[in-house]
Please model this.
Amino acid sequence: MHCLCSSLPCPVPDTGFHECTGGTPEVVSPALLFPVQNEQPPAERLFGPLCATDQPMSAVAMKETFRATLTGAGRVLIADDQPHILDALQILLRNCGFATETVSHPAGVLRALEGGSFDVVLMDLNYTRDTTGGGEGLDLVSRIRSIDSLVPIVVMTAWSTVDLAVEAMRRGASDFIQKPWENEDLLQKMRTQTSWVRVQRRAQKLREEELQEAREIQATLLPRTLPELSGYEVAAVTQQLRFVGGDYYNVVRASEGHAALCVADVAGKGMPAALLLSSLHTALAPLIRQRLEPSDVCHRLNRILCDLTPVGKFISFFYAVLDVREGRITYCNAGHNPPLLVRADGVSTELDAAGAVLGQFPQWEYTQSELKMQYGDRLLLFTDGLVEARDSSDECFGEDAVGRVAKENPDSSAQQLMQLAMHAAFTHCGGEFQDDASLVVLRRLK
Model:
């Protein structure tokens, strides 16, 4: 059965008697709407002050029931520069349960979208300034897409300009309707697009909630506060490219006189990298408590991660133990960017990456090295997202730039040096890191 509002003008404009919900149209009997002139109603159907019955009350109750079913039909933004078109579309859609808002100019469309959410944008491609070419409408489609990537855009165009509709689809329109339109066809497209966008928005909301939960979980893997080490300053920061990332660092007091420092980077980004980092964190914690040598830590981590790491994935890892009293650092580098030890006099030394990355070579034998920090020395541990930050000419920030910042600021605290280095990389890449970037700074006080 077709809805009475599927053709214009609507035969029953009084919505108190005639309303429908897109999927379940209901038609009031013509006998009730247009009674025979000479028919005398039965006594039991009379109503009024002297003959009160429940008949009028049934009609009122029925009207409220209809309204209750209309709330989920959808919200449509209609854009056209011709008032009679706006009126016709508004009547058609409202009578079939859609909430509508009308605008007559592209600027009004953008204001409406910035001020509220719509299930569909139904818009003409030709406006007063450009009545035939559709250029203004095509630009509007692109601008809508930049505001809302999901909202369906249904464009309306004359039958002779199908190529214009095709171009609109290429720019992001979801469907098109030719003028003059068929009411039932237009209504069906509105229902289809409304159903589609609601499914997509529910899925998007679920993804956002899951990502937020994942980010909160990953935040617990990084230290909320750094330990106070007598005679040293320590600062650390990470800049994630996405909600969750593949960078990891930690500074832990392993004993009264020793501290463990590490930094890691998973190949890849996003959720897969975050899950693998969670495995690293879980496996590393008990090894730190056992106060193992750095080479033993890397060996055991590697054996564990080789069983967990998917093909094509790996983790670069640097692990060091600091003897707080003597300033001696014992370290093992498993394929990670060599940290920089910048001496008080400006001379810098790389802590070489002699070992293989974790998770790929189960039989690899790791070795460790040792050096001593003097008063005023700074040790900088970082991930490749910092040194590989690229500018508009595709030039990397580089390890030399990190060392230069440290050399030029010998008296800066660990916190200040961390901020200066991150700011320099941020400026170099124009504020757009291409990967997660992390930095840990350890400074021995004079």
